[in-house]
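lol forgot to send this yesterday, sorry. struct tokens for the thing we talked abt
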């Protein structure tokens, strides 16, 4: 039996791409990208056509989909890397399933609709237990992380 936790990254931008690159260097990762055209391009050419297009991805370790529920259902840990401006709409379909997941926010900024930080929004509007929530923050750029340059990130959570 494989006890390895299954990680899924939600988002198709530069930060999501960088995180997928790093995670897939060490373990399989599922990845949700909204645009089917981008999914097809990434699968065919092994790089994101819109963001960090010089970064080659380990497609043998990436399970890429444009269907959000397919990615979420197979994951134990969700890494949120969608822009805060689109987070409410992107996560709305997950209200009934989010409580069974561990969630790591890599979202920068606040949720515009509620003026809350991501953890508060997930607790108040999605019913997420904060014992299952964590955050990745840092003073670094996606390009630096994806290219494996010396970077500094902080990962914090209440419960491992």
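and heres what i got for the seq, position by position
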């Amino acid at each position: 039996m494989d006890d390895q936790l299954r990680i899924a990254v939600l988002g198709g931008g530069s930060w999501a791409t960088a995180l997928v690159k790093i995670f897939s260097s060490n373990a399989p990762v599922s990845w949700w990208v909204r645009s089917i055209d981008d999914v097809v391009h990434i699968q065919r050419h092994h790089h994101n056509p819109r963001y960090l297009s010089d970064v080659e991805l380990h497609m043998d370790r990436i399970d890429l989909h444009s269907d959000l529920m397919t990615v979420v259902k197979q994951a134990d840990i969700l890494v949120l890397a969608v822009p805060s401006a689109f987070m409410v709409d992107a996560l709305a379909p997950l209200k009934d399933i989010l409580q069974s997941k561990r969630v790591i926010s890599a979202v920068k900024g606040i949720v515009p609709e509620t003026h809350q930080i991501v953890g508060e929004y997930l607790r108040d509007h999605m019913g997420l237990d904060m014992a299952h929530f964590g955050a990745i923050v840092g003073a670094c750029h996606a390009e630096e992380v994806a290219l494996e340059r010396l970077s500094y990130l902080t990962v914090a959570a209440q419960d491992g």
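The chain has one domain: 7-157. anyway ping me if u want another try
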